[in-house]
Specification:
single chain, 167 residues, alpha+beta, 7-stranded mixed sheet, two-stranded antiparallel sheet, 19% helix, binds zinc ion
Length: 167
């Protein structure tokens, strides 16, 4: 199995305090939030890793494309999110604060997944100006069109009525 977000740490610890910029990309499958989910396209992480003492710090951004349903017109829609990440990895991680650091490598995937999951729109719009459902696709029946209006009186018959009453 390919692990695109698994980074060897040997070089980082040989140069403690040095910044190692990296661009990593790969899919993050099965990431979804209600009606929005990440597409199968590659997620791109632009990050800087740095060993500090026995820990590794990660800063940068992660970008992914999502697909979902517009909350107004209900048509399929897609978009892109970019999230900033800033985390610390250590051998003995603190639950909810830092992430685990392997002996020879650090796996960035859990950080990237969490950051993107929090950034997916829960109620997306295809466009800020989306007017709502397409009237042709979703006909709107109004009370006036649906009601039993009396048929309009043909003006010619109305004139005839006047003649009749004259007689
Ligand atoms: Zn829409």
């Amino acid at each position: 199995m390919r692990r695109p977000f698994l980074v060897p740490t040997g070089e980082l610890f040989r140069q403690r305090g040095a910044r190692h910029p990296l661009r990593l990309s790969g899919p993050l499958p099965d990431l979804a939030l209600s009606i929005t989910r990440l597409t199968g396209d590659d997620v791109v992480a632009d990050v800087v890793l740095e060993a500090q003492g026995e820990a590794v710090t990660l800063t940068g951004t992660v970008t992914g494309r999502w697909t979902g349903e517009c909350r107004r017109c209900l048509e399929p829609t897609t978009g892109q999110v970019t999230v900033e990440v800033s985390e610390v990895f250590e051998t003995d991680p603190v639950e909810g604060e830092t992430y685990p650091l392997g002996r020879d490598a650090v796996d960035l995937e859990p950080v990237l997944r969490e950051a993107l999951a929090l950034a997916l729109p829960s109620a997306p719009l295809c466009d800020d100006a989306c007017p709502g459902p397409d009237p042709d696709a979703h006909p709107v029946v109004t009370a006036a069109e649906d009601g039993d209006e009396p048929p309009a009186v043909d003006p010619r018959w109305a004139a005839l009525d006047v003649l009749r009453s004259d007689n």
